[in-house]
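Dear U.,

For the methods section draft, I wanted the exact inputs and outputs in one place so we can describe them consistently. I've listed the two proteins in the order they'll appear in the manuscript figures. Please don't edit the C-alpha cell lines directly; just add comments below if something needs changing.

First protein:
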Amino acid sequence: MSTENKKVTPLIEIKNCVMEFPGVKALDQVNFTLMPGECHALVGENGAGKSTLSKCITGENQMTSGELRVKGELIKIPSYNVRESQKRGVAIVHQEFTLMEDMTGVENIFVGRYLKKNGHIDWKALNKRAEELMEYMQCEVNLHVAVKHLRTAEQQIIQLAKALLDDPQVIIFDELTAVLQEKDIQNIFRIISVLKEKGIGIVYISHRLDEVFACCDSYTVLCDGKYINSGKVKDIDYNGLVKMIIGRELENVYPPINENLGDIILEVRNLTAPKAFRNINIKVREGEVVGIAGLLGAGKTELVQAIFGNHKIVDGEVLVKGKPVKIKSPQQAIKLGMGLVPDERRTLGLVMKFDIKDNTVIPSMDRFKKFGIFQDHQAEMKAAYEINEKMNLAYHSLWQNVKKLSGGNQQKIVIAKWMLRDTEIFLLDEPTRGIDIGAKFEIYSLIHELTKQKKAVILVSPEMEELIGLCNRIYVLYEGAILDEVEGERKTQEVIINNLLGVNAE
C-alpha cells in the first residue's frame, strides 16, 4: 500500500518556542519537527540555542511560551520535566560522560534501576538485558570491568545503552562524536542507521558539518536563539549550510601561513617517556606553527604535556632559546614563556567554579601586585577586560561564571590567559575540539596573529585539513615515534595518511 497519502505523526513538534532566562531570551520563536525514522541535525554556532532547545524537549528547561507536542500529544509545560519526558520515550546522550568510573559497564547501565529477585539484585537478568542491548546496537564492549579501563568510544556506547534501556522513540545525540576518532564515529553512524530502521527519531547536534551530510536526513539551523531555516540535507550543500549558520560566506577558511620565521625558540632532543613516546626530536622557530599528527594512542597529548612539565620523561632534553632547561612542573614551563591549551578545556583548561576575570588572570597573578604584597584587583579587572575584548568574547560581565559560556567562548578564555601572560610558546592540543565553524575561524585567525607577533605554536589536531591549512611543518607520530616530517609539496593528505598507518610515503 502506498504511504504517500498517509499522514505520519511527528515524534516531536515545537512551534513558536520562546525560552527566557533572567535578562536573556535564549530562544525566540523557534520551530522544530522530528519525524519517525529520521536523523535531524540541529546546527548553529556556539550559543545559538541548540542545547537549550534540546533541554526543552527533555523537560530540563520549561518553555516560557510556545507549543510542544510529543507523538502528537500537546504537552502541559508547567508539569513537564525530565522524568515525564522519559516516560514519553525521550532520551538524551551527552558528550560529557555521566558514568561512575569505578563501576562496571553493567552497573552503570542499570544504576538506580536494578532488577531484584527475592530481595537481591538479579545480576543474571541484568547481564542478559545488557547483552541484548549490545546485540541490538551490534557492538562488543566488555561490560564487566570498571568503565575507567575502557576506551572513550566504548564508554560512549555504554552511555547510549543507558539511553536505550527504556526503549525510547526519540534520542538526542548532543555532540556525541566530539571526543571520538574517525573509525568510532563511523560506528556511531552505523548505530544511527540501526535505530532509524526501527522508527526511532534522532536529534543530532554537532559542530562537524561533514557529519551532518554523512548521517542526517534533515536539518534545522538556529542563530542567536532564532529559527533560521529547516530542510532536507540532500537539498543543500556545505557552503550553503555554513552561510546559514554564520550569516555570511566563509571564504579563505585558513589565513595565510607566516613565512617570516625567526630563530629556533624551542627544541626537543631525544625526549622519551615510557609507554608514551620515544626519541622525539622537534624544532620550532619564532613565528612558526608546527603540527603534530597521529592516531589515538600515538603519544601526541603526552608529548605536549611532557614539554609543559606535566608528564614524566626518562631521557632527552628540552632547550628554550638554545639553552637546556629542566622542566619538572607547569609552573617552571610558564616562567620559561610556555602556555598550554589542553584537549579537555573544561577539566584541564579552566576552573569551572571561577568567573571570567579570575580564569583570565590566573597565570599572571604575580604580575598584579601592589607594593609586592597585595593583589591589585583593579589592575586585574582592567587587563582581563582588555584582553577579552580583543578576543571578541561574547559575555555580559567579567563576573559571569565560565560554565555558562559556549565552548568557543570558553576556548577563547583559555587562549586569552596565555596572551595576557605574554606567552612566547603556545602548546595547542586540539584547540578547535567541540566548537562551531565560526568559532573555529576565529581561533585560526588568532593563531595567525600569534605568529605575526613572532610567537611559536605547536598544534596537535586530529583534522588533517586543519594541520595542512595552518602549519609550516607537520611531524607525524606513529606508535610513539616520529615517522616523518612533512612540509612544502609533501604536505598533503595522502602522505600524512600513509604515515598515520605506518607506511612511509614519498
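Second protein (the one for the lower panel):
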Amino acid sequence: MAKTATNRRVKRKDRILDAAEALFAKHGFDGVSMRMVADMAKVDLALASYHFGNKRGLFDAVLLRRAEVLNQTRLEALEKCQAEAGEGGPAVEEIIDAFLKPLLAHGYQDDEGWLHYFELIAQINNSPEWGGQLMTKYFDPLVRRFMDALKQALPDAEPENIYWGYHFLSGALTLTFAHTGRIDQLSDGVAKSEDMVGAYKRMVPFVAAGFRQLCVPETKDA
C-alpha cells in the first residue's frame, strides 16, 4: 500500500515537471505561473508548491532533471574516446563528437519532453539574465572537462581561441535546439530544423575545422 502511494506521488511530481517544462519552453520563465503548471498537470496548486516551493524552485528542478542525464552521458562519451585514444588523447573531431552526439543523435529528438527541454536550454543560453548564471551552474563543470581535452588536442593554441571556439559551438548548438524553422524557409524545405541527426553529422566536421583554423598556428615558409 505504501509503495503504491509513493508511486502515485512520483507520477504526480513527474507530471508537474513535464507540464512546467513544456510551459517554460513555450512562454519563458516570466510567462508561466504556478497555477498554469498545476492546471496543465491536473494537480492541486498546493501540491505543486509542496514539491517545489515556488516557481524558481520548480524552474531549477526542471533544468536539473535532464541536465544530470545529459552530463553523465556526455562524460561517459568523453571518457570512452579518451580511453580508446591512449596517451596522445583523442582528435578534435572525436572530442566534438562526444560533446554533440549525446544531445543530437541519441534518440532524444523522438521524445517530446526532451524537445521541450532543448528549446528551454536555447532560451536560457541566449538570455543575459539567465545564461551566465544557469548554464554555469548546470553545465560548466562538464564543459571544462571538454575544454581540457581540446587543449590537449590543440597544444599550440592560444587559450583565448579555444574558448571562442566553444562559444561559437554553443551558439550553433542552441540555435539548432530552438527549431525556429528558419533553415526550412531559407532552403525551401531541403534542410529541416527538426533534423537533429542531420545537424549532428554536419556540425562535427564543421566545428572541428573551425577549431583547427583558429587554433593551429600557420607555418611560415623557410
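Candidate sentences for the figure legend, describing the second protein: The first helix runs from residue 2 to 27. The chain has a mean pLDDT of 89.

Thanks,
Y.
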